[in-house]
Design a protein that fits this description.
Blueprint (H helix, E strand, L loop, with lengths): L1 H24 L2 H23 L5 H18 L4 H6 L3 H7 L5 H31 L1
Length: 130
């Protein structure tokens, strides 16, 4: 399983770079919602790093649950308070609840699921042919 962890870690790095680039380069809501989708995709990759044998549906459910949990936590004001003192906290926890973010997080989980399933099926096909 080290190859799965390594691939997921590489994917996480690519997603972080993409997320920071999207937020910096794309205007307004396009960049914001693309960033939301990529946020959940990053959580997805990190779940695979932690549990490389987990099934894609379970990983998608955990990634979506974590993303939604962080978003709903913003209703408490705790993430905003932490974000006032830390750029990292602002990037990880956000500051303000925004309902449409929940939809984009689901999109990120769906994209992660589709990529994960595709990669696993390619590996399975390769192993059968070898």
């Amino acid at each position: 399983m080290p190859h799965r962890r390594l691939a997921a870690l590489a994917a996480a790095v690519v997603v972080v770079v993409a997320g920071l680039s999207v937020r910096a380069l794309l205007p307004g809501m396009v960049g914001k919602y693309a960033g939301d989708l990529l946020y959940t995709l990053l959580v997805y990759a990190l779940v695979v790093v932690a549990a490389p044998r987990a099934r894609p549906f379970a990983v998608a459910a955990v990634a979506l649950g974590v993303s939604w949990l962080v978003e709903f936590a913003q209703l408490t004001g705790v993430p905003a308070a932490l974000s006032a003192h830390s750029t990292t906290a602002r990037l990880v926890l956000g500051t303000t609840f925004n309902g449409p973010d929940l939809f984009w997080y689901a999109g990120g989980a769906a994209v992660g699921y589709a990529i994960h399933r595709s990669v696993l099926s390619t590996i399975d096909r390769f192993c059968r042919e070898s």
